[in-house]
């Protein structure tokens, strides 16, 4: 992983988490990339850069050797991502050095479903069985793992904690006239399901002709991006859609507060941080079942849809009904402040890690 404040995305989130945790416990962080800062209560162990050839195997050996070498400095191994280079060292630490093993599962098994990744699946299954505790954001994620692993995960191992949101960076704007903007955020990948939104646009523009659809995120699958553009042309709605690309968090927050609706079309089972960020900004969210967050299950904090027609109808209703938007916005913000604050997350994660060392 990257351990630096110069990255966006999941690396940035983990970096901030570890800084907060280090105020409560000592950490040893293995990182392929890091800055040259020194930290109180954090020892950063740099992993040598790997050549492209056999880099996966090299990474596994490098992380494993560094873990073994530094084993006297930790009691618990905490894996924040699912990858062979972090799981195998954790397994070694548990089996041979009696370290506690806490595993964090934040997304679905879709990346390890194929026959080519059968070994990955076996390692993940072994790690799940071996772990002392398993943290996750959602029961939906656990159900997906159980389905693909073919085994129930022991309930006593499970600990649920929500994504956290910077509620000061992502907050409603006062005295601001919103436009008829519908925004969605995510890397341009097929798993994000943006075609679901594009197919809904022709229904929306019949009743809301000034609507603007903004898709925020870097293009990672060029073929998929071209397919989306061609679909929009075919549906005669390309002029209503803008692909913005990737932007920093501060720009994203500014764009969110200008929007009236946030849409998540993800096909990946998991819990979306950006949904929580939108809710923190006081924006009603419409989502597919897979892309939603566990607490967004009723009309007071968001809306779940399953077809593009349902998405279009709910979008039209929200754009036309300011009172409904305001009600959902207020409820969403309150929910995020109560259950998705950084302090709530860090306190709960800290307790889980401390409890694991005592068992």
Can you tell me about this structure?
By secondary structure, this protein is of the alpha/beta class. It has two domains: 180 residues, Rossmann fold; 159 residues, Glycogen Phosphorylase B (Rossmann fold, 3-Layer(aba) Sandwich), CATH 3.40.50. Helix content is 44%, strand content 15%. Strands 11-10-9-12-13-14 form a six-stranded parallel sheet, with helices on both faces. α3 crosses α4, α6 packs across α10 and α9 packs across α11. The radius of gyration is 21 Å and the shape is globular. About 1% of the residues have low confidence.
Short description:
This protein has 359 residues and is of the alpha/beta class. The chain has helices at residues 10-21, 55-69, 84-97, 118-130, 139-149, 194-207, 222-234, 249-258, 273-280, 308-320, 322-339, 342-358; strands spanning 2-3, 27-31, 33-34, 42-46, 76-79, 100-105, 133-136, 158-160, 181-185, 212-216, 241-245, 261-264, 285-287, 303-304.
CATH architecture group name of the largest domain: 3-Layer(aba) Sandwich
CATH topology of the largest domain: Rossmann fold
Helix content: 40-55%
User: What is the radius of gyration?
Assistant: 21 Å
Total helical segments: 12
In total, the number of domains comes to 2
Order of helices and strands: EHEEEHEHEHEHEEHEHEHEHEEHHH
Query: What is the level 1 CATH name of the largest domain?
Result: Alpha Beta
Strand order of the largest sheet: 11-10-9-12-13-14
CATH superfamily of the largest domain: Glycogen Phosphorylase B
CA-CA gap between termini: 28 Å
Strand content: 15-25%
Class from helix and strand fractions: alpha/beta
> Tell me about the biggest sheet?
6 strands, parallel
Question: How would the global form be characterised?
Answer: globular
Q: pLDDT average, as an integer?
A: 86
Low-pLDDT stretches: 111-115
């Amino acid at each position: 992983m990257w351990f630096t404040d110069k990255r966006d995305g999941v690396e940035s989130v983990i970096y901030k988490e570890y800084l907060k945790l280090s105020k409560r416990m000592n950490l040893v962080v293995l990182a392929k990339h890091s800055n040259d800062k020194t930290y109180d209560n954090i020892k950063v162990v740099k992993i040598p850069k790997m050549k492209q050839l056999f880099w996966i195997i090299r990474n596994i050996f490098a992380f494993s050797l560094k873990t073994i070498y530094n084993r006297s400095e930790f009691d618990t191994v905490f894996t924040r991502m699912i990858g062979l280079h972090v799981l195998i060292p954790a397994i070694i630490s548990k089996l041979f050095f009696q370290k506690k093993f806490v595993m964090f599962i934040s997304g679905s098994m879709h990346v390890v479903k194929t026959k080519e990744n059968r070994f990955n699946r076996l390692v993940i299954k072994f790690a799940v069985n071996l772990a002392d505790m398993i943290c996750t954001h959602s029961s939906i994620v656990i159900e997906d793992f159980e389905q693909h692993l073919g085994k129930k995960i022991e309930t006593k191992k499970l600990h649920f904690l929500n994504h956290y949101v910077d509620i000061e960076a992502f907050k409603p704007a006062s005295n601001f006239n919103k436009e008829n903007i519908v925004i969605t955020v995510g890397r341009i990948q097929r798993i994000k399901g943006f075609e679901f939104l594009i197919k809904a646009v022709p229904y929306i523009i019949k009743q809301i002709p000034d609507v603007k659809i903004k898709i925020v995120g870097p293009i990672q699958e060029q073929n998929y991006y071209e397919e989306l553009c061609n679909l929009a042309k075919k549906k005669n709605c390309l002029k209503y859609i803008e692909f913005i690309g990737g932007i920093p968090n501060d720009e994203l927050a500014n764009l969110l507060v200008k929007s009236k609706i946030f849409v998540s079309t993800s096909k990946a089972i998991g819990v979306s941080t950006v949904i929580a960020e939108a809710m923190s900004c006081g924006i009603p969210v419409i989502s597919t079942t897979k892309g939603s967050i566990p607490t967004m299950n009723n009309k007071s904090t968001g809306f779940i849809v399953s077809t593009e027609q349902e998405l279009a109808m709910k979008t039209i209703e929200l754009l036309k009904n300011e009172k409904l938007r305001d009600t959902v916005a207020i409820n969403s913000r309150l929910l995020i402040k109560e259950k998705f604050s950084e302090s709530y997350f860090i306190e709960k994660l800290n307790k889980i890690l401390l409890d694991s060392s005592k068992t």
